[in-house]
Amino acid sequence: MRKLFANTFLFIFSLTALSGNTAPPRDNEMDAHHGKLQPIEYFHSRSFGLTGKYPEFLQKLDVHENQENSPPLISAVNTPTHLSLEPLQILVNGSDSTSIIQGEDMLITVVFSDGSAEADINLWFDLNADALWDPETDLDIENPFHIVDNDAQDEDPAFGIYQFNISGSAGISMVANMGILVTGEDTGGSDAAYVFIQPIQTDYSVAGQIIPAFSNLFILAVSLDNPYQEPWITVSNIDGEYEVFVPVPGNYLIVLVDFLMVLEGEWMAETNYIEYVDGHLVGYNFQILPVVGEFTGQLTDQDGLPVSGIEIHVIREDASFPFPLSMTNTDPDGNYTIGVYASDWIVSVNSDYLIPFYLVPPPSEVFTILPGDTVVQDFRIYAVDSYISGTVYLDDAVYDQGVTIIGDSELGSAQTTSGVDGTYMLPVSGLADQAGGYSVSIDEYELPEGLSSQDHYEGVFSGSDGIDFHLMTLTGGVSGFIYDAVTFNPVAGTQLHLIETETAQHFSGMTNDSGYFEIALPAGIFNMLIFPQDYYNHLIPDIMVTDAYVQLTVYLEPLILSGSIYGYVTELMSGNPVNGVPVTASTGFDNSWFTADTLTDSTGYYSLEVPSGTFFVQAVLEGWAQLGNSPVAVDNDQVQQDLILAPLSGAIQGMVTDVVTGLPVAGAWVYADNGAQNWGSGADTAEDGSYTVALINGVYVVSAEADGYLTFESSDIEVQDDFISLDIALTPEGSLQLGDVNGDQALNVLDVVLLVGFILGSQEPTPQQAWAADVNGDGAINVLDIVSLVDLILNG
Q1: What angle do the packed helices 783-795 and 749-760 form, to 10 degrees?
Q2: Does residue 105 sit in helix, strand or coil?
Q3: Residues 753, 755, 760, 761, CA torsion sign
Q4: pTM tops 0.70, yes or no
Q5: Phi, psi of 104 (to 5 degrees)
Q6: What is the DSSP string of 646-658?
Q7: Which of 305, 440, 465, 510 is deepest in the core (most CB within 10 A)?
């Protein structure tokens, strides 16, 4: 099992996609930070599944090709000449034991045994730090890959000597405090060479402790400012201590990952950090928690057959970044099991194992795992059998840079990249056509800064062509500074989100050291949401962007957690505590607001640190309702607020129609109010006028309202663990009243005359007249309506 996860360690180098751009960032005099935050489904291990595939492995490690910005190949080393009768010899940078600085190249030299011209090569992690190869203790990074003297990848043309370079800009060279063993075997013998990777030494680092202590855990520092920088990585020592160095100050995501399965599925890391690193930061500890619950399930294809060897992983629902914390592969029967600690989790299938051969199934819902819980979550994947195609343009010319195209359907999602001619072919399953087809769009999170697309397609069927996308160069946007409202110091590392009010397009960025931000946007009206650390959240509504930059200066109120709200969550009938309930305390949503959340413990207890102010406290549990929601005032003190939950055991349901035409009324609001328990709930009607309002037991007043209609109200409707049917007919505003057949706003003999004409058939009523003429409401126009109308005229 550990070997399986060692083969996936290259996942760390996909994390530079956190900012999502695919072209170098543009310079500006303020050194502004650009980029867009990624959705959950974007985070997946792009390098998994390479076991035993020599060409792909070399490509991922950049063994034979330096990237454009990589250090040059190491060639000026003491390369030995081939000697007759010598056994196989392995060297790293010309030595059988050496060290390098993190990020430097490693030149691997293989001197074949006499008479041999090919060999098998392995790379290993030296887990016990003894600089000696022990296959029982050390962990192989990759299955053996085969080399042949003077093949296309051999960088030394001399007979009997084989060389290949592992670039320092990617791969194992970025893992500090770790020893690497390179082993080889040919027909004449075997050998091993050792290299220790020392960390870079700078004035910027993050350090902490693994609690309890575990060695050989990976700690990553992922730059949020430079999307092209590979993560800087270190490994915890035997005391569980770590220090990860970074080359420049900036905003970093600090993540702990158990790539080597040191925790063996029995423990998991609790959290990660987003920090502005401007010196040697200490005290960033990672709590390792015991696994107390698990996910289990089966992965099958569209025919119900099991699919083995596919990675399943879990993500903390409230993580700062959606990073997989544990993973496993399906067994030969398609089954999997993943242990987790008590928290809220999402389980999903790693898309790299499926694209382009299968649709990627959607992730699970959020599950709250408590001690002893086992959640069964099955997945079904659908094989690709067709394509959706089109072309990507930029300002009406073919765009020759790769753009990610995404297709979403009820059966799963697909993904591909456009080519240099701008065309793309998105692999899809025709089975999704029966469920409405695909939603096809560009992954805007990967577009270079300054480009955008407003194209989005719904209901696209497999085999469709001409699904084109038109990128446009953005010439406008927002820029400015964010300051502390008290000290007037700049606020660095603040996340900014801009959402277009009509299209819901999302753009984001971050302030730099000077508190400066600059985000390119298309023309439109935007709401700007600011989520800083240690400050109140902030909203700037209705920012109008045209073809220029809107300049903003924002002052944020510091957040001082001077009080707390605590209490117990219990059931209404039994009074028993409710464990694992999400509880949220929030101020009213204005231009500035604060929200805190937590889970109740086994006694139903919760506690939230809050600033002084007025809060609404809410316990949200599916299938339950919270009774009462009085505001809570906190003034530098601790306030108790107990919460009571009652089950939603019944409902009121029915149809809302126009009383004149009988047609359904969509979008009407139906509300049931239980005044005795200070609780109520409502729902909008669907397109067909139907509605369902889930309720707790009680007696209700039901009202319904819609634009252009008079309000309806009905009282004394009792719900007791049952479903009550209530159809509602809404009267249009300004419509005829019953009996006013001729519409003159009066009840008199003229209405009787017209009503007689309807009954005799000498005149045909309009729909409105027919409604007004059915005075007694029996659904027919007859002499009984005349009797009722005369009574109304005489007696009102």
Answers
A1: 180
A2: coil
A3: positive
A4: no
A5: -85, 160
A6: EE--EEEEEEEEE
A7: 440
Residue type, 573: M
> 751 is written with which tokens?
């209405």
Q: CA-CA distance, 569 to 600, in Å (whole number)?
A: 7
Cα-Cα-Cα-Cα dihedral sign, residues 261, 263, 265, 270: negative
Averaged pLDDT, groups of 10, the chain, 796 residues long? 36 34 31 29 27 28 33 32 62 93 92 92 88 85 83 91 85 88 91 94 94 91 82 92 94 86 80 84 90 94 94 82 78 94 90 93 91 94 96 92 94 95 96 95 84 89 96 92 95 91 86 91 92 91 93 94 94 89 85 89 93 92 84 94 92 91 92 87 94 93 90 89 90 75 83 88 80 82 88 81
Give the list of residues 6+ apart from residue 438 with CB closer than 8 angstroms, or none. Answer: 388, 407, 408, 409, 414, 428, 432, 457, 459, 460, 461, 462
Q: Parallel, antiparallel, or unpaired: how do β-strands 118-125 and 145-148 relate?
A: antiparallel
Positive or negative torsion for Cα 42, 45, 47, 48? negative
Amino acid at 618: Q
Q: Which residues are within 8 A (CB) of 446 and not within 5 positions of it... i.e. 6 or more apart? A: 17, 20, 21, 22, 403, 404
Please name the residue that has the structure tokens 């700062």. 320
Smallest CA-to-CA distance from 170 within 273, 326, 16, 324 is with 16
3-state secondary structure of 643: strand
Q: How far is CA 269 from CA 87, 231, 325, 766, in A?
A: 45, 19, 7, 72
Q: How many Å separate Cα 647 from the centre of its chain?
A: 30
- Rounded to whole angstroms, the Cα distance separating 396 from 469 reads 10
And the tokens for 611?
Answer: 């600033």
Distance CA 78, CA 91 (A): 10
Angle at 262 between CA 260 and CA 264, to 5 degrees: 110
Instruction: Name the token pair of 428.
Output: 């899809």
DSSP 49-83: S-TT-HHHHHHHHTSS---TTSPPP---S-PPPP-
Is residue 534 within 8 Å of 559, Cβ to Cβ?
yes
| 191/213 Cα distance (integer angstroms) | 34
d(CA 321, CA 334): 29
Each residue of 621-632: pLDDT tens digit? 888 988 877 899
SS3 content of the chain, % helix, strand, coil (to 5): 10, 45, 45
DSSP one-letter code for 454: -
As a residue count, the chain comes to: 796
- CA 763 – CA 320 distance, rounded (Å): 72
- Is the preceding omega at residue 356 within 30 degrees of 0, hence cis? yes
For residues 339 and 293, is the Cβ–Cβ distance under 8 A? yes
Nearest to 641 by CA among 564, 563, 561, 566: 566
CB 342, CB 371: distance < 8 Å: yes
- Residue 11's SS3 state is helix
The residue among 303, 300, 309, 304 whose CA lies nearest residue 332 is 309
β-pair partners for 290: 267
Structure token pair of residue 166: 């592992």
Tokens of 8: 């996936």
Cα–Cα distance, 683 to 690 (Å, whole number): 10
- Cα separation, 216 vs 241, in Å, equals 10
Half-sphere exposure of 578 (CA within 13 A, CB side): 26
For residue 312, the tally of other CB atoms under 10 A from its CB is 25
Closest CA to 756 of 736, 737, 775, 731: 775
Q: 217 and 256 in contact (C-beta within 8 Å)?
A: yes
Say if strands 280-281 and 379-381 run parallel, antiparallel, or are unpaired.
unpaired
> Which amino acid belongs to residue 574?
S
Instruction: Tally Cβ neighbours within 10 Å of residue 58.
Output: 19
Structural Rg of the chain based on CA atoms = 34
Residue 137 has a pLDDT of 83
Structure tokens that stand for 377 in this block: 């979550």
